[in-house]
Amino acid sequence: MEKGWNIQNLADDKYKEQFKGWDDIVVQMLFNRGIKNKKEAEKFFDPKYDEMYDPFLLKDMDKAVKRTIEALNKNENIVIFGDYDVDGITSTAVVYNILEKLKAKVSFYIPHRMQEGYGLNKKAIDFLKNKKTDLIITVDNGVSNKEEVAYAKKKGIDTVITDHHEVPNVLPNAVAVVNPKRKDSKYPFRDLAGVGVAFKLVCALVAEINKKKKKEVISPGYLKWYLDLVALGTISDIVPLIDENRIIAHFGLVVLTKTRNVGLKALEKVAGIDFKNSDPYMVGFQIAPRLNAAGRMAHAATALELLLATDEGEAGVLAMKLDKLNHERQDTILHNMDILRKRYSTEKIENIMLLKDEKWTSGIIGLIAGRISEEFSRPVFCMAEEAGVIKGSVRSSVDLNVVETLRIFEKIFINYGGHRGAGGFSLKSENYELFEMQVLQYGRNKLKEEELVSVLDIEKEIEFKEITQQLFKEIKKFEPFGHGNNEPLFVTYGVKVKEAKKVGKDATHTKLKLTKDGKEFSAILFNHGEMGDQLYYGKDLDIVYKISENEWNGRKSLELKIEDLK
Asked: H helices within 80-193, ranges in order?
């Protein structure tokens, strides 16, 4: 189970001087997160909704708002063109709801993951033309659809793009391209999720309409009730939870505790979740997988219909359908993981793993790639074949830049994209053998065995005597945790085992009592029940862990969640 341990560089004395009287561990955590001074730290700990940036700072926002108001005034047919993941679904729901409240003639279109793939496509545009569509507003997609936007224009349909993905060298010739990653953007924050950009559009639209009408057609306070959806999409898309995203996540989780969304309430009930304890873990591991299951196993429109539902009975049926699809997804992934584990217990494992199965669909390959990459500490290319085209999903738990690696093979691809840790691609089936040979050779040449290690980023080395309820309270102030503000990991060396036993169903986990310098803590090691036999009284350990709180019979105590040990 050993992983690489990367302890962050210590903050220097000059940095620490700004924080006199502050806990040394807290100061180190601020330093690790790139927070430059005390003013930034105070802003980090006290997010304020009023400090959200002006949406009109986004390039082309004025054009997007002007064209949307024109469509409203002319009673034109507007279609929100979304995506099939949680970011795309929540983006569509937010814009659709606000336009509907503004009495627009609005509908939505979500492409089928397996049959249409990501983004705008010509068949969908033909369908929308037949429906007499005048304006397409894309959310969480569109910035790479230069050809499709031109095709829509030829058909007499205008396009407003709102997106957050990496921007190509040549932008589509749309009425507006609203994307904080534009090279000519002066927007203060680049890393909004698709739903963040979509929310900015409705904020700008409402502000402009209120200004023109000289009254609050929709109040800014009303818009805050959509922050639950904005936070869902933001957290699910694993964008950095810093700066403006931190404000969105903070207030969105507050709104989620008292959500007015009928569909979310139904999902809470069916899934046995309690929104009163809303946090990024609940969003990422309990809500998002159920919403995503629709697009992975069937059609994402089911998840969108749930978020737009106003009838409790209808919402209950849709929530149960999503819960069922999620169980099917889990069973499918577990079944495939078992097969792959058995296969690679005897087969040689390449430095880059290429996995392909005729039974797989593009809806599950990303999940399989992620699990296998974590388990085998390898970059994983996981592929499904659909209608003569191979669609691939790439995940890497080791230090390999995925999108730069994909760029090496771009001549073989139909298209590709992604970021450092994950990506996707497609290629013609007849090019697969050439692709396989080149990728495997690249893995052998580029990656060394010692580099194939997942690395844990550790905040600081600390001692047991420093772990107190007060420290735990200080750490809680860093919430909500997420990408760019991970839940902190600490390391302590020379800890002794006082007790070790297997616990949980099928003895899956190991429960420990650990001591050092006279201080004792309970600890849990998940998914490593075998350690219950290997860790005996008096054994010395070095441990990497998170500090958590355990409640039993009304009593709270601190517990260590062990991530790795040596």
From this structure: 86-101, 122-130, 146-154
Backbone angles phi, psi at 23, to 5 degrees: -60, 135
Q: Are 544 and 486 in contact (CB under 8 A)?
A: no
**Which amino acid type is present at position 494?**
G
Encoded amino acid at 394, one letter: V
Rg (CA), the chain: 25
The distance from CA 522 to its chain's CA centroid, rounded to whole angstroms, is 31
Structural domains of the chain, with CATH: 55-217 (3.90.1640.30), 344-450 (3.10.310.30), 456-565 (2.40.50.460)
* Distance of alpha carbon 181 from alpha carbon 190, whole angstroms: 5
Structure tokens at 229: 């959806």
- What residues pair up with 562 in beta bridges, in sequence order? 545
Residues 6+ apart with CB under 8 A from 143: 161, 163, 165, 166, 167, 168, 171, 172, 177, 179
Instruction: Look at phi and psi of residue 527 and say left if phi exceeds 0, alpha if psi is from -120 to 50, else beta.
Output: left
How far is 29 from 19, CA to CA, in rounded Å?
12
Q: Are 23 and 473 in contact (CB under 8 A)?
A: no
Please write down the long-range contacts of 96-104, taking CB distance under 8 Å and 24 or more positions apart: 96/308, 97/226, 97/308, 98/202, 98/205, 98/206, 98/218, 98/223, 98/226, 99/68, 99/72, 101/218, 102/72, 102/205, 102/209, 102/217, 102/218, 103/72, 104/71, 104/72, 104/78
d(CA 140, CA 120): 11
Backbone region of residue 485 per phi and psi (left: phi > 0; alpha: psi in -120 to 50; beta: other values): beta
Sheet containing 77-81: which strands, arranged edge to edge?
105-109, 77-81, 135-139, 158-162, 176-178
Please report the DSSP string for 269-318 in residue order: HHHT--GGG--HHHIIIIIHHHHHHHHHHS-THHHHHHHH---HHHHHHH
- 345-351 CB contacts, 8 Å cutoff, 24+ apart: 349/376, 349/378, 350/378, 350/440, 350/443, 350/444, 351/378, 351/379, 351/443, 351/444, 351/446, 351/447, 351/449, 351/452
pLDDT at 468: 95
557 burial type by CB count under 10 A (0-12 exposed, 13-18 middle, 19+ buried): exposed
Q: Rounded to an integer, what distance in angstroms lies between the CA atom of residue 163 and that of residue 184?
A: 15
* pLDDT value of residue 450: 79
Rounded to whole angstroms, how far apart are CA atoms 188 and 169?
21
| Mode of pairing for the β-strands spanning 490-503 and 460-461 | parallel
CB 91 within 8 A of CB 140: yes
**Look-up: residue for tokens 């220097």?**
12
What's the rounded mean pLDDT across residues 168-191? 94
Q: How many CB atoms lie within 10 A of CB 540?
A: 11
Model confidence over 494-532: pLDDT tens digits?
Answer: 999 998 888 887 778 899 999 999 999 999 998 778 877
Q: Which two tokens stand for residue 352?
A: 């880059």
Compute φ and ψ for 312, nearest 5 degrees. -60, -40
pLDDT digit string (tens) for 224-274?
999 999 999 999 988 899 999 999 999 999 999 999 999 999 999 999 999
Q: What is the C-alpha separation between 455 and 445, in angstroms, rounded?
A: 21
Res. 66: pLDDT tops 70: yes
